[in-house]
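fwd from M.: "can u put these together and see what the complex looks like"

so here's what she sent:
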Amino acid sequence: MKLKQRSNNKRGAILMLMTVMLPFLLIPVAGLAIDATIIHIVQTKLQAAVDAAALGSGRLLGTPANITEIAGEFFSANFTVGARGFWGATLPTSGGANPNITYTTGITKTITVNAHAQVPTLFMRVMGFQAATVSAIGQASRRDARVVFVLDRSGSMDLGSGQPIGLVKQWTQSFIKEFTPGLDEVGVVVFDGTGVVAYPSGTTYTPTPGIVGSPSPGGPDTCFWDTTQASGNSKYGVTGGTTCGNTGQPDAVYQVGQLAVGGGTGMADALSLAYIELQKAHLRDLKANGSDTKTNAILLFTDGVPSAVSLYANDPNNGGPWLTASSGCTYRNNNNGPTQNPIYFWVTAPGNPIYSSMWGGNLQLDSYMVDTTHTPAWYVTHAMPKTTPPPFSSYVETAAPTNPPETGCNNFYATGGWTGYWNNLSRVPATDKWGNSTATGDGNGSRDAYFINTSGTHVVTYDNGTTFTGILNNPSGGSPPGQNAADNANQWGLAMWNATDAAAKNIRTDANYTNRGESSPMQIQILVIGYSGTTGTDAGLLKRIANDPDDTQSPNSLPAAWTSSSQPKGKFCLGTDLLTLQGCVDIMSSILLHLTR
Amino acid sequence: MKRSRLRGSSYIEFAFCVLLLVPLLLGATGIGMNLLLAYQASQVARDAGHMYARQTNNFALSGSQTILATLGSGIGLTATSGVCGSAGAGKAVLVFTTLTYIDDNACVLGGYTTNGTTHNSSCKNFDKWVFCQRIVVGDTNLMATNYGSPVTSGNGNGNPLVSINSSGNISSTTQLTNPNDVATFNAINPYSSAGSGSGLPSGQFIYIAEVAARGFTMPPFQKNPIQYAYNMF
């Protein structure tokens, strides 16, 4: 009887158990999982939205744009509420602005986006939880920048169509305007066969950066754009020009707009000038503030390969002077004061990478030969070759200067033609005018070139041990002849390549920091845009200059040894046509102006 | 006899419970799978969009698409060659779009000016957002983007068809002059007040990453669900 009773009692127990478990356990557990997942997804969406708001508006940090408004719009675009929103999530404003956007100005400009959302629950409301709140925070910041634009204005930049120099000028002007006058610092160096500091421009140029406590005048400054000028080509320094000491001089935007085109590609000279300019501004900050908080960068734009080098024939250092005894030029003697009377000249060897011919000249070291007539502004509007009009003789000295007299140097000054330059040299100088090695490049034992033709196609790679470097493997002569063959155009071509490679390394390692009296180097980032659309370019060298190890970007088959992991990494971008070139400008803009995290 | 009857009633009770539990289990599984997919799609849109906006990768390259495929393996994203995706490839699609605003400066840069400072009538896309780049990775059948597409086929409505090159780029001439390249904002334009005194510099871009993934199908509860996520930077 008892057994029967128990059995009857058991009947329906499972059903009852389930009836009880379903609403109180199973559905709540399943509901909890679903609600928790939904809440987590909304939190993810919210985080993505604040990130997007910070990153999207972060691109505009330092510009006149209304940063907080733009950040709010980006947030709204990424996190919708209402019918199109995420599971009915709302943005409650009872506790204040939501999203709460804070824009902090100063040396480091920061945008902070803080938001919280209320997510209605589906199942948990049965248990009394009507909604859950999730929050997210996103931040982007940018430090004030110090950038020297290094612009190629060699002859190939305009092969008759006015491009790509036309677009480069306009893009650079637009780019410069993205920096903030009064906060960021901008400088401009332009180069053909040799370089000149186009901004800030003055009638004098100091070729050394100075030392801690005593910086040389010049360097990138905050007065680079006169925002009071309505047109793109504003002419005079901004109101703060007085502060910068360049009132009445053309501003950077104007200078870029004035660029004339012609001549070779003296990349090493231009990079060295940019390095000196950066150091001047760095020292200026150290003197004024005791620290330099700006990002230091060089942006190089070129459409070719190095085809010119600037030299110091009677340099008493680095194994010089390089003049032959038979030259008759007595200024090769240290006692004659070569450092006071340096013989500067340049050699150009075109036809890259087969350097088949060459020419040279003097009084065309733009940065050095500045006087009241040949000001930096004048050089900007007068590129090589300066044949017609005005007469070539106006720019290239065809006889030895008379003050001071450089006795016996007439041959050197090419009275008999270009050959005077190299026939009076004992060899290709071991360094260029700035001390960059013409023999070893950056000294890592490899000289690596990766030539891209005008169609954007890779045509040849030169790596260690192949023809490109083999010529230099016999520096004392023989076959191939090595650097003793000062009349060999190919040697000059290689010297130009090496000097550029070495200049870039000197910049990345801040080779001059101990000479300035500092105990640690500056961090200088080099960004490079190469354009292959006119004559082709050496993407390998340019990627080395930038020290860009990114193998996902073209050229993407370079050995890792071509870059250095211990030196500041930069960015190289190859433009094969005008549109991809514009893309490169965008990338560099993103790096320099959108340093967001 | 009694035990047998008892056993039978348990079966019946269990059957009733199963009728409730199995749908609950299946429903929870299906919903859970799709919620997980939605979560993963959001993450992919966010991460890929980040990389795209920061220009850290060129997603036209197969190597970069392989990175995306790894990133989106959870949603079934498959690398496809080129920039146009492939119908039926994988279970997801990732669409990258770059839009730019055509203002006076853009027209002047392109040479569409009479006086050097303002646009002329040849700059037909003045004051419009246009496509600069479109890269599609994965299954193109899954979705049409919320931002429209450049007109690349058909009669072009009297205008030239838009050509997208192997990098996904659209020529600057097309951007400036071809109405078939104009973007339509079905979604929200983050620069909606760009023309109302925000002081925007010229040359603004919007980078968009959209993701669609084929969800977990469980008829009759869920049929061909698509999980969609996007981010614009």
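replying to her w this: Chain B touches chain A through 62 residues (CB under 8 Å).
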